[in-house]
Write a structure and sequence with these properties.
The radius of gyration is 22 Å and the shape is elongated. By secondary structure, the protein is an alpha+beta fold. It has 5 helices and 7 strands, in the order αβααββββββαα.
């Protein structure tokens, strides 16, 4: 039995794989966001008014393509336009959720899909704040999980930008969570130029 593949069949197969994959990734991101408990503060950090740049552009393009296909009554492209729209929507959801920043009672979540960008409050050894007109840049220093403090020669760091509207609330949460455990005297604060 001979199977003949046309370019259209291969293209549609690849598009189907991407559609299914993006659906799973979107569900995974939504479940990770839903699992967060006791969120004290969150904000968007995308490039277009807080929304992710490329995912937004792709979603708008896919929507325009779908509208064109529908208006032109190109029946043979309905499935393709629908897949592009669905992939664009899933990509947007994933990008939006992963670009959100969360402060919870347990710690800082910079990316809900990347555990290495989630730091518990008790792991943080020190932090630096650099204030600017556009907000505040925070650098949190912490040690790797399960490693003895004496064995760690260098600290890991988590960089976090906080927009102006959230800076005061962010400072309150950080002060409450870390104020009891860190000595924030002038001598103990790391110089920002040294960190950069």
């Amino acid at each position: 039995m001979q199977i003949s593949f046309t370019i259209d069949t291969v293209f549609l197969f690849i598009l189907t794989i991407f559609t299914i994959g993006s659906t799973f990734l979107s569900c995974y991101s939504i479940l990770n966001a839903a699992r967060l408990r006791n969120v004290r503060l969150s904000w968007k950090s995308g490039k277009i008014f807080g929304y992710p740049l490329f995912a937004t552009i792709f979603l708008v393009s896919a929507t325009l393509f779908g509208g064109f296909v529908y208006e032109s009554e190109l029946n043979q492209y309905y499935l393709m336009a629908g897949c592009y729209g669905w992939v664009g929507l899933n990509w947007f959801v994933v990008s939006y959720l992963t670009s959100m920043r969360f402060l919870t009672d347990n710690g800082i979540v910079k990316n809900i899909n990347d555990p290495s960008q989630t730091v518990a409050w008790h792991e943080i050894g020190d932090y630096v704040e650099k204030v600017s007109e556009t907000g505040s840049d925070y650098i949190f220093f912490y040690r790797e999980r399960g490693i003895d403090e004496a064995a760690v020669k260098t600290a890991l760091r988590l960089d976090l930008f906080v927009p102006p509207a959230q800076v005061e609330e962010f400072r309150k949460v950080v002060s409450y969570k870390l104020g009891r455990t860190l000595n924030r005297s002038v001598e103990s604060i790391v110089n920002v130029k040294t960190v950069e």
